[in-house]
Amino acid sequence: SQQGEEDPQALSIQEGENATMNCSYKTSINNLQWYRQNSGRGLVHLILIRSNEREKHSGRLRVTLDTSKKSSSLLITASRAADTASYFCATDPGGTSYGKLTFGQGTILTVHP
Amino acid sequence: GAGVSQSPSNKVTEKGKDVELRCDPISGHTALYWYRQSLGQGLEFLIYFQGNSAPDKSGLPSDRFSAERTGGSVSTLTIQRTQQEDSAVYLCASSPGRRSGQFFGPGTRLTVL
């Protein structure tokens, strides 16, 4: 079952613009992770934010987490054509299910040069 | 260093046949995960192995699916009596621990005719 719901399902922007993707989830989590997938194959881990963190940065990526609203957002600043990919959020419940990720449906990002 | 590798990259089989999918995790990673990705179901957790602990098989969709991990390294996912609904991309991931992000392989695309 898919816990995360991502919004929007698809996003099309011009190079240099910022891209924001949102993820909502339903149950309590230990951490939330964002992944990128190119061409429908292997996923690349981008960033992990723990439930006691509110914001995290990595290069051009900024992730926020609001556990009271059970939502997270991924911001990619100054986008590049190479950022074109599908982006997934994944929740980790922790406890005895640590590492057992539940993925959202993903956002397809297209960055036009 | 070498990432997670999977073989074969593509597998076409006839309904009713058994298939074996292989995953070589990153050396030293104690946790190994199997997921599958299909158009209708998105990314689904199947099973994970953590060190010498009993695997968490809670995501396996039926008793036709099984997996083993030999010597704490290589893992094989076996699907017996394949059905058309088993057609999907099967992704393997490993991580240095359950509290880390996961490193994914390129996947095996399984097509059941």
**Averaged pLDDT of chain A:** 92
Average of the residue pLDDT scores of chain B = 93
Largest sheet of chain A: 6 strands, mixed
Chain pair sharing the greatest interface: A-B, 24 and 28 residues
Strand content of chain B: over 45%
Strand-and-helix sequence of chain A, N→C?
EEEEEEEEEEE
The number of distinct β-strands of chain A equals 11
Query: Percentage of helical residues of chain B?
Result: under 10%
List the uncertain runs of chain A: none
Q: Give helix and strand order of chain B, one letter per element, not per position.
A: EEEEEEEEEE
Task: Provide a concise account of the structure shown.
Chain A has 113 residues and is an all-beta fold. Helices cover 0% and strands 54% of the residues of chain A. Chain B is 0% helix and 49% strand.
Main traits of this protein?
heterodimer; A: 113 residues; mainly beta; 6-stranded mixed sheet; 5-stranded antiparallel sheet; 11 strands; 0% helix; 54% strand; globular; B: 113 residues; 4-stranded antiparallel sheet
Description:
The complex is a heterodimer of chains A (113) and B (113). In chain A, a hairpin with a 5-residue loop joins β4 (31-37) and β5 (43-50). The radius of gyration of chain A is 13 Å and the shape is globular. In chain A, strands 2, 4, 5, 9, 10 and 11 form a six-stranded mixed β-sheet that branches. A five-stranded antiparallel β-sheet of chain A has the order 1-3-8-7-6, with no helix packed on it. Chain A is 0% helix and 54% strand. By secondary structure, chain A is mainly β. Chain B contains no helices and ten strands. Chain B is globular and about 35 Å long. Chain B has strands at 5-7, 10-13, 19-24, 31-38, 42-50, 65-69, 75-79, 88-95, 103-104, 108-112. In chain B, strands 2, 4, 5, 8, 9 and 10 form a six-stranded mixed β-sheet that branches. In chain B, strands 1-3-7-6 form a four-stranded antiparallel β-sheet, with no helix packed on it. With 113 residues, chain B is an all-beta fold. Classes of the chains: A mainly beta (113), B mainly beta (113). The A-B interface holds A 2, 31, 33, 35, 40-45, 47-48, 88, 90, 97-106 and B 4, 31, 33, 35, 37, 42-45, 48, 50, 56, 58-59, 89, 91, 93, 95, 98-107.
